[in-house]
Design a protein that fits this description.
Number of helices: 7
CATH architecture of the largest domain: Orthogonal Bundle
Number of strands: 0
Strand content: under 5%
Shape: globular
Distance between the termini: 43 Å
Largest sheet: none
Radius of gyration: 18 Å
Helix content: over 70%
Structural class: mainly alpha
Order of helices and strands: HHHHHHH
CATH topology of the largest domain: Hypothetical Protein Yqey, Chain: A, domain1
CATH class of the largest domain: Mainly Alpha
Amino acid sequence: MSLKTSVESEIKKAMLAKDKDRLRALRAIKSQILLEETKGGAAGSISEEDELKLLTKAAKQRKDSADIYKQQNREDLYAVEMAELEIINEFLPKQLSEEELEVALKNIIADIGAEGPKDMGKVMGAATKALAGKADGKMISQKVKALLA
């Protein structure tokens, strides 16, 4: 089932349950999907890879906003962003733990044959493609630096 279809069915459930917070987050996701589908040159539908990128971007935006609100002691807005982030995470694949990430990166480094920091670009390219949606880019970068040092 496509992301759009599952989001639409969740919107219906949220409407029936009168869950305004969930409904707001789901409508935001649907809005982003529709914008992506109608973007110039788009075929009217988006691939699973694009759906994943869209959700990852939305989750990162919510997390960044929540961090800012937390720093500014805006607990009301922080709570809204965290609630939306939680709902977006329901549609994302399970995130890798640090240990799982390290094992995956070691395998990628071995496959590429990277030997030191000079090969970081090659490793990062392969790692971000292989681990898209499963790990945060910043976390991948930190682990790769540590493993290649």
